[in-house]
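Issue 218. Parser rejects a valid record. Input:
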Amino acid sequence: MTEPIRITRAAAKKPKPKDSELTFGTVFTDHMFVADFQEEKGWYDPRIEPYAPLSLDPATAVLHYGQSLFEGLKAFRGKDGRIRLFRPDKHAARINRTAERMCIPALDPEMVLKSWTPLVDLDRDWTPSAVGTSLYIRPTIIASEAFLGVRPAKEYLYYVIISPVGAYYPEGMAPVKIKVIDKYVRAVPGGLGGAK
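Output the parser choked on:
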């Protein structure tokens, strides 16, 4: 995808929370990145638009077969005021490793990076600066074709939303309660444990 990214700015801005009030993943910025995929076109129409609900047909493949993936990375505001993404190239590579495993068409890694940086820059005022806070970036791909059948979809939606966040565990890492079960496993050889 070599198309320029179209930008449509939000008409109204949402109120921003104070750094001290941030939780994890409950507040979202004013904009989101979106691109589409069709088998005959490839990935196309990259755009940044106002954050809004997605409209999905009840037969959309992701709702029936779960063909989707997500990634997560953070941007931090340094003491100098600059915003830096943490290892974006590694996250872009992991998106495509997961896409291959989920039979989802790969994204151009350069386009992935270009989907994050202008979005973060546009909503830069949302990036908190207190210690322990960050701007969480959530890229997602879903099978958007409306069909029922056993095959990979022929249409996908790639979107990126961002959220100013506090600590994932507000009480800190201690004590974190876990439940250990030996009857069910998430990651096994040949399974999906390494894919998000």
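Fixed in the parser; the record now loads. The chain has a mean pLDDT of 90.
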